[in-house]
Amino acid sequence: MNTKKCLIITDVQKDFCPGGSLAVERGDIIVPVINKILSTKKFDKIIATQDWHPQNHRSFASNNAGHKAFDIVKSSSGINVLWPDHCVQGTYGAQFHDALDQNPLNIILRKGSNPELDSYSTFLENDKTTPTGLTGYLREHGITTVYLCGIASDVCVFYSALDAIHFGFKTFVIEDAVAGVDLPLGNIERNNIILKNNGVIFINSRNI
Q1: pLDDT averaged over the chain?
Q2: I need a labelling partner for 205 at 20 to 30 A (CA). Which of 31, 38, 64, 186 fits?
Q3: What is the 3-state secondary structure of the chain?
């Protein structure tokens, strides 16, 4: 059986790295690891995603009167976290980390552009029904296996991995090439257990 592999680099953007508005610990440390993975040239397709929010996005605490960042609220798409303004379309913070090698990228997938709906997963928006188009792209190119890296391991990488399994892809998370928010405390460990229980395989970059 011909196995075609895709690397999905999730949201390695300035706002998620130290100094950004929603900085994640180790967000910049994983960039050289990702570049080393890219240099192996072991993937048939390489995709990078960007959070790409309008300024009036409902997930921003600033757009929800009486609330502050990291409050939990209910919306039409379920229970959501309110975040600091981040990755606003066209801004400095929405750019990829300067050190990330963009030359090998086949496509850039931008998500979270609907002001009323967040999009954690690379495959589906948070209503769990609206597709981003990634599933069709991967199937069109015969991809059977996906490797996930990037930010944040317990949010966008987590939901992307669950959806990848759901859509029938063999799914790996590259454990030394992800960084997490860990909100609430312990979320990374809990979500990693969920991923493993659903068939996601954790791998170190040196074993790819």
Answers
A1: 95
A2: 186
A3: CCCCEEEEEECCEHHHCCCCCCCCCCCCCHHHHHHHHHHCCCCCEEEEEEECECCCCCCEHHHCCCCCCCCEEEECCEEEECECCCCECCCHHHCECCCCCCCCCCEEEEECCCCCCCCCCCCECCCCCCECCHHHHHHHCCCCEEEEEEECCCCHHHHHHHHHHHCCCEEEEEEEEEECCCCCCCHHHHHHHHHHHCCCEEECHHHC
Question: Is 163 designated active site?
Answer: no
Give me the pLDDT at residue 79, please. Answer: 63
- Identify the active-site residue in 11, 28, 163, 182: 11
- Is 41 an annotated catalytic residue? no
Q: What is the pLDDT of residues 129-144, one digit of tens each?
A: 999 999 999 999 999 9
What is the reported pTM? 0.95
Domains, the chain, in order of start with CATH, read 5-52+87-207 (3.40.50.850)
Given the residues 5, 14, 45, 111, select the one marked as catalytic: 111
Among 6, 87, 149, 156, the active-site one is 156
Q: Is 111 a catalytic residue?
A: yes
